């Protein structure tokens, strides 16, 4: 029957909290990869070749419609067959980064599409190079409307980090699994993991919503 | 081993895993849709208590990871006296998780039905239930179908996590084949392609068909 053991709770809490640091680190690193790679994927869809654009879109579609856990397995187990042995952390960051890059590229694409046509024409008439047009004119204007979507995926990536425990990334879920295996107690570790996730993701989501509102007001959208 | 040999030897297991994944997806989807509808309507209830119960459910399931929820349901619920079979635990976790996301779609769609429709229903002296069932919900359904299509693909992907509690789905079979043969590219690659095909050529077209079907039924096409 159910009995919550407070002494046990206090013994495992430090271990779970230090694993939480790894979870946050994993989410941050994975997100950093996704933010950059997502932009690359969004820009690759804007080349003049329709075949190239279609293939990039199909690849994005593929990444978005297959499970992250399977992608993690694939990267971790297949890379050594090509002579590249990846540590769990590298394989984990790579797969979660690519997975979320596919999502973020869609967010950026929406942002870039929302930049008025006149801005492109103005840049052309000022004889700006393509690179300058993108980095000085288009992307700065595409970013604000993308921020809400970017924030949602930041929370999303954080909640997906437990999947990395399957290849042994020592994050929160991994720590809870080890505690469960060592002590045969599951109630406290798994419940605490849930509480820790809530304690981080709810305020972050609220913060992102507040930021979104502030941004909308600043841009005069409301 | 050539890929052809691989398929002739392990095709049957991959196929049975695919079948489990599809069945799991259908059951979890049915659960998610029903819960989303109930929780979405509860969040719009005039009663504050009903509203907060739904809000707590949505925040808990959207605020934590599906994997945490799955492990909690499978490993911790038995301590409360509810022992669930792993397949049941799997579809309940996936259904509850996606249902929380879906309830937001339901709520948003209901709120975006034009104001005049509510007023017209009121003017015709319809009861609250009648108004919701005959006027508001059908129109809300049309609004929320496209985002539900995305959610269904998320749901398919989510079912892969049940492999971690040893439900013999597609991901589980791929993992088993990999650990006995070390043919990682073949086993995981095949599974990835199957998920992609199911999502892109089974789920997406049927959701599109449903959208068109509903639009025709509503006389909007």
From TrEMBL, chain B:
Top-rank taxon: Bacteria
Gene Ontology terms: cellular component: ATP-binding cassette (ABC) transporter complex
A GO biological-process term: amino acid transport
Keyword entries, A-Z: Amino-acid transport, Cell membrane, Membrane, Transmembrane, Transmembrane helix, Transport
Membrane topology: Multi-pass membrane protein
Location of the protein in the cell: Cell inner membrane; Cell membrane
Broad class of where this protein is predominantly found: membrane
A Pfam family: BPD_transp_1
Domain ABC transmembrane type-1 residue range list: 18-203
InterPro entries to which the protein is assigned, alphabetical: AA_ABC_transptr_permease_3TM, ArtM/GltK/GlnP/TcyL/YhdX-like, Ectoine_EhuC, MetI-like, MetI-like_sf
GO MF: transmembrane transporter activity
Residues passing through the membrane, by range: 20-42, 54-75, 87-106, 140-168, 188-210
Stored SUPFAM superfamilies: MetI-like
Family: Belongs to the binding-protein-dependent transport system permease family. HisMQ subfamily.
Record-given protein name: Ectoine/hydroxyectoine ABC transporter permease subunit EhuC
Source taxonomy: Bacteria, Pseudomonadati, Pseudomonadota, Alphaproteobacteria, Hyphomicrobiales
């Amino acid at each position: 029957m159910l009995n919550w053991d407070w002494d046990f709770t206090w013994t495992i809490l430090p271990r779970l909290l230090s694993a939480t640091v790894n979870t946050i680190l994993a989410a941050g690193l994975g997100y950093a990869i996704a933010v950059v790679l997502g932009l690359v994927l969004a820009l690759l869809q804007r080349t003049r070749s329709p075949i190239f654009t279609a293939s990039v879109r199909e690849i994005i579609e593929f990444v978005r419609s297959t499970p992250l856990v399977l992608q993690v397995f694939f990267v971790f187990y297949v890379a050594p067959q090509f002579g590249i042995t990846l540590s769990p952390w590298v394989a984990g960051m790579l797969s979660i980064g690519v997975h979320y890059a596919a999502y973020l590229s869609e967010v950026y694409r929406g942002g870039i599409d929302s930049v008025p046509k006149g801005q492109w024409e103005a840049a052309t008439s000022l004889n700006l190079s393509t690179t300058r047009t993108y980095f000085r004119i288009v992307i700065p204007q595409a970013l604000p409307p993308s921020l809400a979507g970017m924030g949602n995926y930041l929370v999303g990536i954080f909640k997906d980090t437990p999947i990395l425990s399957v290849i042994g990334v020592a994050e929160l879920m991994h720590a809870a699994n080890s505690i469960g295996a060592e002590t045969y107690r599951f109630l406290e570790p798994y419940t605490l993991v849930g509480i820790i996730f809530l304690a981080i993701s709810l305020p972050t989501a609220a913060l992102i919503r507040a930021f979104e509102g502030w941004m909308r007001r600043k841009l005069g959208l409301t | 081993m050539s890929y052809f040999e691989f398929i002739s030897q392990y095709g049957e297991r991959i196929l049975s895993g695919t079948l489990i994944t599809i069945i799991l997806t259908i059951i979890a989807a049915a659960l998610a849709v029903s819960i989303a509808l109930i929780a979405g309507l509860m969040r719009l209830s005039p009663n504050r208590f009903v509203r907060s119960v739904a809000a707590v459910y949505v925040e808990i399931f959207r605020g934590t990871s599906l994997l945490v929820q799955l492990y909690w349901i499978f490993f911790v619920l038995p301590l409360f006296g509810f022992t669930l079979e792993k397949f049941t635990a799997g579809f309940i976790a996936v259904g509850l998780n996606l249902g929380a996301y879906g309830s937001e779609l339901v709520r948003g769609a209901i709120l975006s039905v034009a104001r005049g429709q509510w007023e017209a229903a009121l003017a015709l002296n319809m009861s609250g239930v009648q108004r919701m069932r005959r006027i508001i919900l059908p129109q809300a359904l049309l609004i929320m179908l496209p985002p539900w299509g995305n959610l269904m693909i998320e749901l398919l992907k989510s079912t892969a996590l049940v492999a971690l509690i040893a439900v013999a789905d597609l991901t589980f079979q791929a993992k088993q084949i990999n650990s006995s043969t070390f043919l990682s590219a073949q086993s995981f690659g095949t599974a990835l392609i199957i998920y992609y095909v199911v999502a892109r050529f089974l789920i997406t077209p049927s959701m599109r068909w449903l959208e068109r079907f509903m639009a025709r039924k509503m006389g909007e096409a």
